[in-house]
Backbone:
């Protein structure tokens, strides 16, 4: 699988809505196909929690993103 790179100057925002009772132990993971000698693996991305109740990040590439509690 290839990582989809967006055109220069373009970005997209990934945002997950969080229930009010959600603790601070959540993060966004990204599936990076090049990890583990090309077998792929999850990597944690820096995300910020908004006052509106979202965990969000801005990225310059597409792919598979998941919200996890740890």
Residues:
């Amino acid at each position: 699988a290839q990582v989809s790179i967006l055109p220069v100057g373009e970005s997209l925002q990934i945002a997950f809505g969080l229930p009010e009772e959600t603790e601070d132990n959540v993060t966004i993971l990204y599936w990076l196909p090049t990890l583990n000698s090309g077998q792929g693996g999850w990597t944690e991305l820096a995300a910020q929690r908004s006052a509106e109740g979202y965990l969000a990040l801005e990225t310059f590439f597409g792919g598979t993103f998941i919200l996890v509690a740890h």
Residues 5 and 62 are 6 Å apart (CA to CA). The two ends are 27 Å apart (CA to CA). The chain has one helix and six strands.
